[in-house]
């Protein structure tokens, strides 16, 4: 059962508060105190020994929070300085607000001992989302054995109703890093499902009005780019200047409009490029701030993959060339003209979200080699992307939602629409829940650049699950179907449709310390999948996982284990419709062991090692398959300002069976005499990724980071075979050399200075180089690949960007 709800009265003030981290105004002593925090980890339910005292004040413009964290000695207060929104080896204090008291959605405002600010949002769809950023302020100080936090949270940073008297959900948290302990004012029990539903209440906030939330953040940026790989008759060094703005407007007390006009995302971190041998696309992280903050409503149902907006043009790889023509310019990213979000939640718990983005037409430039005449080839039509969401919060940590995504393209290409309904109902005790979804997808039109109708049209997906969600022992039973024509990939991402999947999940967690460990968790899952159309067996597996953390050393150890009988892979042959061809995968068993050391130490590390062994396949005289993996992630903190990190990921797949070439249609280029056949190859794939990064934080407003990544993947083929529809293989005299090596090298150096709330100067240097060596040029030697990559001409970009936050309320107060 959740703990009883505590209550705290806020005190209205008339005098000004100086934000200095001292709490020396007399009014602080008049406010009621929130104290007697309760430990949530590592020993849930234990009262804190070092007292915490928190007071809340408010006026017509902001909420003020003052906190005193008592400690045993000055050196017990850890204070590593990090970048904004990053946790470190430091104590922290947090304020949590549920301004609509729906016990589902909330805000987090956190400050570290060094004054570094972190903020985030909580929602059923996004969980804890620290990509959300607000403009607020905090100051900290240390007085003997105490450290003090003073916060000012303007009403423009949050949303609340227009009621005469507010009732908000409230909680406070304190992390005492010396003991790796976290405490909450209103007890948060780890065995109880949910977080926002375990907060207390803030009362006494009366006669405040949601302010006019209107801000403009204009930017200017300048780039110098040098690409030595450009064609000889084009400019190798180019410059560009950009300008635009972000606008935030509070339409009313509940809803806010966010818009970005002529956005510039050139300074975001480089993608981790990889060699992709799978039948599915690579999913990249979203690093563009506009698409990461305030998107919890749009992520309902996992139907929105924001990298679709501004992605590679649909015709990038298929520029039609005539005789003696070559491509001299072909932009790899679609230019985004604007993007807009409207979102909010009413006092009745109805969340509404509207997203819209427009990308411009993109063209490749083609030049005739003899005449020098240029012509433009359309690679991306003018496109509109939109999402509409309704999300009704219900009692008992429950909700129902409706979401629609739509992509409309100009011209004679296809459009796409996806509509889904979602629900979750929990019982009054928050012990059991049922959830599910029903989603419909529709695509209409012709493939880009052709007159051929797209293959997949109407499709659907539904899920249904029921389970025990609270307590030490939890379980769930889940069922999912994706039809053969279900396709949300125009604005979402799905790696494989045409599936029927059933799973049973079990978990047992021991939260309280015993013997020599702080906690312990066991996980089990049994899964079974079928191909939906035609109905054919795909896979059956059993999974078991375990992890625990030791009491004194805080060393975390664990493992993941799974076993599978023979599986059938209908995707690897790359044949549509599915079910016509299959690759049989022999029974296999895998295990991964991992260990993570105490992050409080100057030198900490993580290690994992894995192995997967396959049964012998009697169809062909081939050796046994093995997969090996190893990861090593040390981090050395020189002092509270300087930290070095390194990560090594190594994997080796021996005797892997994978697609090489093939197809069944006459318009696909194939190697004679294998036309009309699918060719598989037995190969070894060795992959190494190294990342070295250094972060130096000058103060809580200024930082410098350097990240260098080298990735190499080597593929060596041993023999080849042709594939029959039933999964049988026949060794083939296939003589093309398919060996290859892929290398990627990136440097991202970023200097960032938050010179005022919401305002920043950033200087970014990016260096990128890629090589793909085929056949005889490929080499398995790591250092040879590294040297080749370093010595290959790289693209270099240096940019400066300045953005300045302008708030209407600030100008109004200055008049």
UniProtKB/TrEMBL annotation:
Molecular function in Gene Ontology: carbohydrate binding; hydrolase activity, hydrolyzing O-glycosyl compounds
Coiled-coil residue spans: none
InterPro entries per record: Carb-bd_dom_fam9, DUF5916
Residue ranges of every copy of the Carbohydrate-binding domain listed in the record: 19-176
Gene Ontology BP annotations: carbohydrate catabolic process
Record domain DUF5916: where: 210-813
Pfam families noted in UniProt: CBM9_1, DUF5916
Matches recorded under Gene3D superfamilies: 2.60.40.1190
Name the UniProt record assigns to this protein: Uncharacterized protein
């Amino acid at each position: 059962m959740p703990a009883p709800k505590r209550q705290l009265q806020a005190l209205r003030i008339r005098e000004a508060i100086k934000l200095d981290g001292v709490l020396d105004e007399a009014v602080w002593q008049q406010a009621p105190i929130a104290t007697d925090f309760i430990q949530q980890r590592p020993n849930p339910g234990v009262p804190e020994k070092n007292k915490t005292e928190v007071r809340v004040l408010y006026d017509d413009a902001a909420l003020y929070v003052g906190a005193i964290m008592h400690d045993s000695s000055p050196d017990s207060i850890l204070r590593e300085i990090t970048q904004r929104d990053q946790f470190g080896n430091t104590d922290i204090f947090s304020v949590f607000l549920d301004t609509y008291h729906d016990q589902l959605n909330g805000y987090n405002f956190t400050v570290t001992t060094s004054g570094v600010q972190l903020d985030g949002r909580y929602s059923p769809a996004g969980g804890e989302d620290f990509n959300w950023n607000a403009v607020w302020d905090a100051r900290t100080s240390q007085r003997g054995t105490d450290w003090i936090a003073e916060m000012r949270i303007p009403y423009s940073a949050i949303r609340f109703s227009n009621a005469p008297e507010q009732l908000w959900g409230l909680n406070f948290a304190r992390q005492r890093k010396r003991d790796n302990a976290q405490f909450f004012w209103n007890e948060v029990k780890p065995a109880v499902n949910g977080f926002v539903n375990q907060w207390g209440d803030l009362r006494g906030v009366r006669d405040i009005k949601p302010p006019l939330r209107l801000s403009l953040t204009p930017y200017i940026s300048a780039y110098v780019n040098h690409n030595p790989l450009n064609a000889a008759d084009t400019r190798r060094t180019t410059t560009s200047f950009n300008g635009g703005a972000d606008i935030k407007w509070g339409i009313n007390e509940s809803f806010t409009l966010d818009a970005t006009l002529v956005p510039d995302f050139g300074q975001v971190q480089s993608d981790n490029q990889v060699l992709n041998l799978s039948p599915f696309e690579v999913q990249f992280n979203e690093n563009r701030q506009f698409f990461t903050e305030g998107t919890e409503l749009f992520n309902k149902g996992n139907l929105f993959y924001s990298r679709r907006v501004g992605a590679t043009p649909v015709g990038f790889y298929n520029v039609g060339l005539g005789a003696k023509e070559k491509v001299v310019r072909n932009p790899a990213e679609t230019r985004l003209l604007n993007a807009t979000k409207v979102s909010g939640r009413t006092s009745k718990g109805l969340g509404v979200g509207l997203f819209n983005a427009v990308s411009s037409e993109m063209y490749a430039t083609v030049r005739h080699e003899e005449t020098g005449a240029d012509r433009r080839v359309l690679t991306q039509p003018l496109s509109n992307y939109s999402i509409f969401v309704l999300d009704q919060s219900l009692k008992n940590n429950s909700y129902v939602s409706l979401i629609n995504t739509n992509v409309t393209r100009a011209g004679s290409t296809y459009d796409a629409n996806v509509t889904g309904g979602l629900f979750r109902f929990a019982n009054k005790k928050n012990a059991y829940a049922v959830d599910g979804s029903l989603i419909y997808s529709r695509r209409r039109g012709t493939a880009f650049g052709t007159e051929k109708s797209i293959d997949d049209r109407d499709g659907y997906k539904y899920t249904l699950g029921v389970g025990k969600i609270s307590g030490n022992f939890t379980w769930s039973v889940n069922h999912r179907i994706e039809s053969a024509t279900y396709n949300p990939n125009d604005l979402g991402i799905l790696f494989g449709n045409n599936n029927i999947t059933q799973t049973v999940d079990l978990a047992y967690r021991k939260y309280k310390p015993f013997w020599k460990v702080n906690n312990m968790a066991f996980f089990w899952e049994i899964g079974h999948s079928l191909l939906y159309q035609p109905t054919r067996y795909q896979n059956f597996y059993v999974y078991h996982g375990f992890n625990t953390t030791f009491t004194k050393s805080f060393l975390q150890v664990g493992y993941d284990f799974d076993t599978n009988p023979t599986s059938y892979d209908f995707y690897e042959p790359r044949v549509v419709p599915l079910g016509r061809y299959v690759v049989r995968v022999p029974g296999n068993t895998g295990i991964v062991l991992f260990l993570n050391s105490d992050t409080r130490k100057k030198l900490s590390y993580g290690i994992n090692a894995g192995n997967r062994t396959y049964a012998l396949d009697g169809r062909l005289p081939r050796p046994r398959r093995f997969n090996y993996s190893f990861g090593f992630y040390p981090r050395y903190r020189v002092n509270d300002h300087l930290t070095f990190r390194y990560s090594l990921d190594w994997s080796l797949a021996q005797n892997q069976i994978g697609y090489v070439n093939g197809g069944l249609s006459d318009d696909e280029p194939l190697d004679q005499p294998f036309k009309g056949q699918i060719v598989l190859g037995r190969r070894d794939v060795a992959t190494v990724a190294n990342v070295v990064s250094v972060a130096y934080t000058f103060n809580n407003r200024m930082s410098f980071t350097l990240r260098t990544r080298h990735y190499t993947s080597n593929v060596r083929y041993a023999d080849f075979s042709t594939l029959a529809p039933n999964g049988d293989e026949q060794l083939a005299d296939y003589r093309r050399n398919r060996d290859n090596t892929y290398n990627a090298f990136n440097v991202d150096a970023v200097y960032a200075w938050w010179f005022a709330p919401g305002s920043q100067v950033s200087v970014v240097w990016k260096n990128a180089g890629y090589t793909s060596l085929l056949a005889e040029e490929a080499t398995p030697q790591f250092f040879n690949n590294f040297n080749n990559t370093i010595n290959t001409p790289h693209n270099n970009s240096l940019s400066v960007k300045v953005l300045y936050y302008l708030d209407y309320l600030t100008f109004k107060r200055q008049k």
